Amino acid sequence: MRKLVLFGEGNFGPALLESALMISNGQADANTFALDGTDVLKFRRNFESVCNTVYNKDSLLLLSDLSTSSVSQEAWLVLEKRDLLNRMLFVSGASVPTVMAALAYKDEVETDEELMKVLGAQTKSSLIFFGS
Predict the structure, then answer these.
(1) Which residues contact 3 (CB under 8 A, 6 or more apart)?
(2) Which residues are bridge partners to 92 per DSSP?
(3) What are the φ/ψ torsions at residue 69 (nearest 5 degrees)?
(4) What is the 8-class DSSP label of residue 85?
(5) Cβ contacts of residue 89 below 8 Å, gap of 6+?
(6) CA distance 78 to 9
(7) At residue 30, does pLDDT exceed 90?
(8) pTM summary value
């Protein structure tokens, strides 16, 4: 089972999840977490709480705004400390289509490699270009 965690600077994670759910008219399951990044110490505590729910066969799908943000760095530190780096897939530059695809496919696709292809295809197909 994959735990889906959305986070970023400020209110990015909760706002991204809310937007994706509003557009898709869907619901998040109990294994989906949107963490506020306004206070880095509070984020760390909340992220550690999520990591406490990761059991033997579980993995993490992390969707973030920037891989270099302060909350992303905190997430890396927690994952390293808990020896979870080999049980996570980290996606930087997450968007509403990325979240919608993650919600739909996180438990449907077996491997991280397949999930990366699905997320990439869904996100790419959501681009619409205007102009000449």
Answers:
(1) 31, 32, 33, 50, 53, 54, 58, 59, 60, 61
(2) 64
(3) -70, 165
(4) G
(5) 59, 60, 61, 62, 112, 115, 116
(6) 17
(7) yes
(8) 0.91
